Amino acid sequence: MGGGGQQTDRITGTNGRFGTYTWEEVQKHTKFGDQWIVVERKVYNVSQWVKRHPGGLRIIGHYAGEDATEAFTAFHPDLQLVRKYMKPLLIGELEASEPSQDCQKNAALVEDFRALREHLEAEGCFKTQPLFFILHLGHILLLEAIALMLVWCFGTGWINTAIVAVLMATAQSQAGWLQHDFGHLSVCKTSRWNHLVHKFVIGHLKGASAGWWNHRHFQHHAKPNVFKKDPDVNMLNAFVVGKVQPVEYGVKKIKHLPYNHQHKYFFFIGPPLLIPVYFQFQIFHNMILHGLWVDLAWCISYYVRYFLCYTQFYGVFWAVILFNFVRFMESHWFVWVTQMNWLSMQLVATCNIEQSPFNDWFSGHLNFQIEHHLFPTMPRHNYWRAAPHARALCDKYGVKYQEKTLYGAFADIIRSLEKSGELWLDAYLNK
């Protein structure tokens, strides 16, 4: 959804006309090549459109046979435009006797959440403050400039190089949070401008791919912490997380690594390797495999800029070493921030980190995990305004709303891994 629609004849219902359907009928269409979704009580056949969806084919597939209204509203700022492109996919609507939500959802909670969103929109919480993002971009460029000037003025000694590396890693991490804002279409007024600037920030400032990021991250938001649907919890058999996966692996006697020690080896293969090794390979593989040539051009521009600036001081070999050391530090920053809600997979919820100017800056406002997942297109500088309302809604329906210290959240990552490892070992030995 969003982008050019598929121009085909309208598909008729089972009686040869514009159809009405029960949830039972809708839920039969969940397999690749035969996928239906429901948005605002209307039934859409997205079987072919998934291949052209700007957010990637998997995100719609994750909602096959389900009500996708909340996801539709959350991901698309210009709903009227997207509805226009969806018309060729419309095949009918739910029967009048059918509930608006599938059986997995609390109808009263859904209605209250929609009312909350309308209230926040009326309060201006979805309006961007351009100065916030201009200053954020400015401080990233300033950090990059200071790093280069330090090398220019003070040379390539070990102490100066260490300071330069810290500045560059900080700039890279903060650019990561900024590209996240543009990727969520939460900065510019139109999706087009958000997409264009997103390519510049993630491509030229970070050397990564907007298409690759969209494919991964929108799946994460569609089904956060759902195994086989959220790529952020795809641990490539290096870790087992949550309560279900460890037991499944244990019962099946799967032992790619000694998972009962994963809370120890996490420090050696998690934060140090994610960006320098796994993401680096995956980004280029994805761009070439899917023909993302515009992304590749932006990405190459980053590497050209970096090596033109630093090989004249360090030479090629040491410039490569500096580059990878910066990625190594950035990877630690990224992993600890983004995995702060690992424990939440055991609680069927997520958690916030207490607000402070440092926590907001350090995490790119992802310390407001709850509000970010409820309202992914909301500019992050407004999360604090939405937080009291989200907490009140959670209290009303008995949904756990957690808030932790930054240290407590980091510690819970290790506790979560240790607990999951114990579950795996027990199942592996005894079941």
From TrEMBL:
<feature type="transmembrane region" description="Helical">
    <location>
        <begin position="265"/>
        <end position="283"/>
    </location>
</feature>
<comment type="pathway">
    <text>Lipid metabolism; polyunsaturated fatty acid biosynthesis.</text>
</comment>
<keyword id="KW-0812">Transmembrane</keyword>
<protein>
    <submittedName>
        <fullName>Fatty acid desaturase 2</fullName>
    </submittedName>
</protein>
<dbReference type="InterPro" id="IPR036400">
    <property type="entry name" value="Cyt_B5-like_heme/steroid_sf"/>
</dbReference>
<keyword id="KW-0472">Membrane</keyword>
<feature type="transmembrane region" description="Helical">
    <location>
        <begin position="303"/>
        <end position="326"/>
    </location>
</feature>
<dbReference type="InterPro" id="IPR012171">
    <property type="entry name" value="Fatty_acid_desaturase"/>
</dbReference>
<keyword id="KW-0443">Lipid metabolism</keyword>
<keyword id="KW-0275">Fatty acid biosynthesis</keyword>
<keyword id="KW-0444">Lipid biosynthesis</keyword>
<dbReference type="Pfam" id="PF00487">
    <property type="entry name" value="FA_desaturase"/>
</dbReference>
<keyword id="KW-0813">Transport</keyword>
<dbReference type="InterPro" id="IPR005804">
    <property type="entry name" value="FA_desaturase_dom"/>
</dbReference>
<dbReference type="GO" id="GO:0006636">
    <property type="term" value="P:unsaturated fatty acid biosynthetic process"/>
</dbReference>
<comment type="similarity">
    <text>Belongs to the fatty acid desaturase type 1 family.</text>
</comment>
<dbReference type="InterPro" id="IPR001199">
    <property type="entry name" value="Cyt_B5-like_heme/steroid-bd"/>
</dbReference>
<dbReference type="GO" id="GO:0016020">
    <property type="term" value="C:membrane"/>
</dbReference>
<dbReference type="Pfam" id="PF00173">
    <property type="entry name" value="Cyt-b5"/>
</dbReference>
<keyword id="KW-0249">Electron transport</keyword>
<keyword id="KW-0276">Fatty acid metabolism</keyword>
<keyword id="KW-0560">Oxidoreductase</keyword>
<feature type="domain" description="Cytochrome b5 heme-binding">
    <location>
        <begin position="18"/>
        <end position="95"/>
    </location>
</feature>
<dbReference type="GO" id="GO:0012505">
    <property type="term" value="C:endomembrane system"/>
</dbReference>
<dbReference type="GO" id="GO:0016717">
    <property type="term" value="F:oxidoreductase activity, acting on paired donors, with oxidation of a pair of donors resulting in the reduction of molecular oxygen to two molecules of water"/>
</dbReference>
<keyword id="KW-1133">Transmembrane helix</keyword>
